[in-house]
Amino acid sequence: MHQTSSTLRSHLSRILIAATLAVLALGVHALPAAHGAATARADATCGLASADGRIQHVIYTQFDNLHFTRDNPNIPSDLEQMPHLLNFIENNGSLLTDHHTPLISHTATDILTALTGVYGDRHGVPVSNSFRYFNPNGTSNTGVSFAYWTDPLFDPATTTPSDTSFNMLTADGKNAPAPWAPFTRAGCNVGVAGAANMILENIATDIPTVFGANSPEAAEVKNNPAQAFADFVGIGVHCAHGAALCSAANSGKPDLLPDEPGGYNGFDALYGHKSVAPQISPNGPLTDLSGNVIQDPQGHVGFPGFDGMEATVSLSYVASMQEHGVPVTYNYISDAHDNHPTGPAFGPGQAGYVAQLHAYDQAFGTFFSRLAADGINQSNTLFIFTADEGDHFVGGPPSPANCDGVTIPCTYSTIGEINANMAGLLATQQGVTTPFRVHSDDAPTIYINGNPARDAAVTRTFGRALGKLTGANPITGNTDRLTAAIADPVEMKLLHMVTADPARTPTLTWFGNDDYFFFAAAPNCNTPCLQVQPGFAWNHGDIQPDITTTWLGMVGPGVRHLGATGRVFSDHTDIRPTMLSLVGLRDDYAHDGRVLFEALDENALPRSLREHGGTLRRLAGAYKQVNAPLGAFALASLKVSTSAIESDSSGDATYSSLENQLAALTAQRDSVAGQMSALLEAAAFAGQPIDEHAAKALIAQAQSLLDRMNALAGD
What we know:
By secondary structure, the protein is of the alpha+beta class.
């Protein structure tokens, strides 16, 4: 069954509570807490080093599926219905609207790419929120992307997974560097409210990883798992060295990062609402911005679940942290287009959807006013806002046809994605009954039993059959081609989807028709293979523009006042280097993204990013087009990959030729992009102006690669 992103995280968490119990069997309203400018002073030990020294706070807000563009031209978009936030960004900073996800375009991959500044092949989670992986015997199990940063690959199906590599995995097989490390090393406490993998995500593996299998926390999991989830999951503070906030007296625990470049010793952290809330709400229970005690739907005081991270809750955590010695915060806000926590999904302009967006808008109005009263505003704070991915609405037309949702509510006779049984369609339409497992999605990753080679006969037959599948759309009555594109490991490598752990690489990734959600049940259609599922209506994961194009908002010292602009192509990897450049810090690794200097004031940039401006802009633009998964080079390559995989059996020479050319172009791209990245990174973080001659040569090489890929796609 399909789950929207935040729903999936909460759904997984509920499954894990139940799974934990199974494993163990085997073996009121209140006034808001007081706040004020005195408590919100930046910690004197926090060494943010912006160009003019004005940035004292950082607030990073990650939305789950919040749209800048309209899903229906008559209905104001999500951001248009949140004027407190939209006006704050447009009037005080830059809103980049030609902003893109990585692939797969999913919550876990997208957020982790934004947090790290590298694609999934370098942080370990390139495929989906939960994913299959191959066992040594060629069968597959399910791994879950949502797990604490230092967890091994997390498989809720077994307590002894065969793959014990880190969930967060670098290209050389180590635990990926953590996003908070540069800040804590600079003396800044870092608070987290729901941001992926920076906090505990479950009670099955995260508790023993962080606290120990025989800890009091593990005992609470055994005795009261629901309360343990509310106590320990979702919220945390990573402290600067020696910070009193995370002392043992305040429930602090060691913050262990086993492979952090340069080491990471002597740092502590607070894990969970139970430890954090007393420090940021010392006068009583922590409340949301409306004054309600924060608790889950069953009344357990503490973290309310990822579905429960609505704006009034998530922003309350941020404000309270900022007011109590935590000047750097990351927070997650759950989507507004589902009726959390039970559903159903809303359509654009539907009354419940509009009401939730209004509540989010009011929360931001309260949030900005509260921060301003604390002395936290755009004059001394860097604000980053983004959404993990867009998503595609599946349903019939609204009624009345001229509804706008705001003055005329919209209703829908049909809402719901079209659930499609891949196994049944393959068997009935193409006669293919090859056993396989799949990560269910509108862009499913497919694991053929036995883990055959990409060019094995069984794989080739399966890929050709995928490309021929059609669906009789029960909403429109049309017969739809179900394939948008198909990628095998050759193409996935080009798209930055192949990690250091080969077991995670699927046999095929099928980018499907975005009205459909694909799963694998019985290889027949005795139960209809195509059915509308009214519980879920928002698809993501695929390659269509309404899914992969999202937005990035930046406000604060050093950010230009451009308002909304689509003149700069960017993606999630660019957020991290841009943020670090503004605050004067750096990572111990090179990013896949680059500093978005077009959106920054010149006086906020090092001299090395001001010199050779024209060439630098062309270099950055060419780099993104040749390296980004949604750049021109990659989009053209998907056409080539699809043609190769769909070529008939008599055309295996065509398949081999196209695949070999893709592999060769990928290797050349990696070389050129690596050199481009080195120039951009050195200019941003090492004070080295770009070499004009070298940059122009690389721009020419990138254009040549793009021309060759376009020609191949055209052929």
